Amino acid sequence: MQLSRSARIALRVAAGCGFAAIYVPLALVLVNSFNSDRSASWPPSGLTLHWWSVAWGSEGARAALWVSVKAGLGATAIALLLGTLIAFAVARHRFFGRDAISFVVVLPIALPGIVTGIALNSAFSTVLEPLGVGLGMFTVVVGHATFCIVVVFNNVVARLRRTSGSYEEAAMDLGANTFRAFADVTFPLVRSALLAGGLLAFALSFDEIVVTTFTAGPGIETLPIWIFNNMTRPQQAPVVNVVAAVLVLLSVLPIYVAQRLSADTATESRI
Amino acid sequence: MKTTTARAAGRTPVRRLAGTLHRRPRLRLSLLLTAPLLWLAVLYLGSLSVLFISAFWTTNSFTSEVVKVWSTDNFHTLFTTPVFRQVILRSVGVALAVTVLCAVIAFPVAFYTARLAKPKWRPLLVVAILTPLWASYLVKVYAWRLILSQDGLADWMLKPFGLSGPGFGLPATVITLTYLWLPYMILPIHTALEQLPANLLDASADLGARAGRTFRSVVLPMVLPSVAAGSVFTFSLSLGDYITVQIVGGKTQLIGNLVYSNIELNLPMAAALGTVPVVVIVVYLLAMRRTGALSSL
Lengths: 271, 297
Prior knowledge:
Number of helices of chain A: 12
CATH superfamily of the largest domain in chain B: MetI-like
CATH topology of chain A: MetI-like fold
CATH architecture of the largest domain in chain B: Orthogonal Bundle
Oligomer: heterodimer
Shape of chain B: globular
Number of strands of chain B: 2
Structural class of chain B: mainly alpha
Strand content of chain B: under 5%
Largest sheet of chain B: 2 strands, antiparallel
Order of helices and strands of chain A: HHHHHHHHHHHH
Distance between the termini of chain A: 34 Å
Helix content of chain B: over 70%
CATH architecture of chain A: Orthogonal Bundle
Structural class of chain A: mainly alpha
Largest sheet of chain A: none
Number of helices of chain B: 14
Shape of chain A: globular
Number of strands of chain A: 0
Number of domains of chain A: 1
Number of domains of chain B: 2
Order of helices and strands of chain B: HHHEEHHHHHHHHHHH
């Protein structure tokens, strides 16, 4: 298609505006963390590093960060196990209901978070509470794992589809048993997909707020919940600004590492 | 000597287990599937079905305890109460507006990254689109709270024109949701435009079509399924959202907020309200399937 010169310029300008619209808000969060003023008025009256040191010492933010890390690690571990199991079943076997399984894996992330949240909440409170297990860290991990399975599954299944089963068959022809073939051939092939999937699952769990709201017991405050609770408190504004800025900077990490680890799907889409 | 050790090894439990597993693919499959199916089918689908069934229960208005008697009262209330109807229509309207805005903004960006930018820059541009997806949802909404707040960036930029920003409210909600889900729309369009065969465009030009005509008759029909695929995300994510509305929406209410405010007092009503976005999304998915969008998801 031969675009006229003016059409090319118009497209370039439009794309430039698009990219500006994507990055200006994130840049604003970064700048605002150095704002010496407590209010969010623009332009900032002065710049300071003071709030960064205040945030560093903030007990609430630290505790919430720690809770988020623990929940994320727990959810990632479960998602890695279950997601890999389903991926192997779907990629290496043919059976009735295979498509249904691929669909159910995506469902927890495809349905609105609030629906998943209240479903799990009412299930936990009707089934677990009579057994003496209240809402708490355990239920948060279970909730997060449910929607994290899909990222692990997607990564591993994409890798398995690219590497046919013939490698394993060759190993077995050479005398390796099922476990040996898995440890020496299959696992090394999927290892980086597992790492990428696990990392993305952790990032997903780390960011989740809706399902957390409904599955966390009293006293369990993840970082997103902490930000949400403190966002509208003028007293906490500077600390929230810094935490937000840190999260913007950290968001480059998962995409960078996933990009290095796996060219399959990790960075093609968010789910 | 060697053969005896091999034979001895053949009798170890591990080898025997490996042999059994190898001979029985069904057993292997059921071992693979038991744990995940227990988790997803029993825990997740189980909770979901209980939730949807509870939409047909009611609550005792004095004790707000759930009465497990089948009735369609909740759905009757849902469709006859003007407030509920308004909120449902508003939520669908917001989701559609966000989807259209995303498509309109995404197209030139995707066209640039897929066809206009130098090929060596393209992968980098894709990463640039993707990175904000991994920035925290809450931080992105917070960014817009900063922009739209009083004397914030929006007010400052519009002041020279004698205007002020939209403040917190319905427009702020639409803007923020558009920002949040925009990458979900750019990516599929970028992929479709990148895969568009150049010779089709040449053929169109050879047959005398100008850029505008080629765009309408060749590019658009081929990219439309991808727009539909992207719209699945923008539409359903907007429809279920309630946090963004709470942060930048002022007094605006969407379905999510109604569900949220009913959970404590009237869970069956919350469940009935929760079925609305699910049903709307399923209908939307079925409509999109006809465009062939779902195969390109």
